């Protein structure tokens, strides 16, 4: 997502790349066409006896109506953009809440029903951390789903869910027994068992990822090849587990590559010639623009990965309830968090899959084209040679706003104007790791210490000193609460006085 005011800033030379965030690539053919119409009208009316000027009575009425409709179109698209941002915030909030319930409220001490003994601390920690990894995987799976990347074989997703069961029944390896999560991802059973046998034979059980295998044509189309320069500079996937996979892992982020066409829009027309000169096939590198430079929207795909992750989280919740390990309040918080994740992904899919009605978009665009086409005929008598730049400016402004609405209507792709889904996922990852780094110490170890002054500024003694001063009125059985409240009132008066500006 582009930072505010990307052009006029202290880093203007660096932000030249942000030119790709504009809609010039999408509107320059229309702007050029209407400018040529204005040029023809001006030349014919000036150098011939024929006058192409017509009455401008309809100009004001149609211009006002189109301006209001285009404003409504842009506002509606921005509402979808804003709602998408709010839903990702709710995913982050629900992920934090769910992780805190699992890490803090699920007890570490428990009985093992299988051995009739106690579960070790290591077993419980592995269980909790694995489920929190699934929470992290949920946001990543939603990101790939919204971007039309259906597979689970991504560098930032597969290591987090690779431990989930692959088959519906134990010791059953038929094709029909593969669970939906892996079946829709094209799991290769033979490679799966080969890798598992290699891991059992390996001493350290750590093998390199299988992304060194030859890349097929389908993998190229899905974006197997990534920018090595950017990867060396920023590689957040390096902190994830190293898990071998039966299929090559695609990059966590695979935006369209940048070419000179992104900075000089008219060069899009010569792109086939350049590609032939470089002896490159059209499908060697994914290119998400048409011959004129207009963005090609990715197709919508269905993904069941987020749903299945919430199913595993719900299964874990049911297991905790069956063992009686959750208090009612904690159980309610856990259910609400899982429900919030499910509601968020459902609403995100609604935004993704329900654009504005086709008839509305077509009628608005056709009306705008007709208005801009007849604009030079109506303003020639008043503007003369200025008809050409006036038409160009008007078409640039109106077509630009219309295209901006089209641009932000689906804010989940790789465009610079889209939401930074990778940033959202990395923030959730950092927060979940921060939660699991908390060791839940006994409150007595830090509350009643010399580093805590709970009654300041009314009483600036530390907690340990107040506890040791047994002769203080705080320790009187009957009147202690009176003196404590008196101290707190003194604190309030001093704070109220000091924090107010004179």
TrEMBL record:
One Pfam family recorded for the sequence: Bestrophin_2
InterPro entries (alphabetical): YneE/VCCN1/2-like (IPR044669)
Keywords from the UniProt entry: Cell membrane, Ion transport, Membrane, Transmembrane, Transmembrane helix, Transport
Membrane topology type: Multi-pass membrane protein
Domain of life assignment: Eukaryota
Membrane-spanning residues: 27-46, 52-72, 358-377
Subcellular location: Cell membrane
Name of the protein this chain belongs to: Uncharacterized protein
Species of origin: Somion occarium
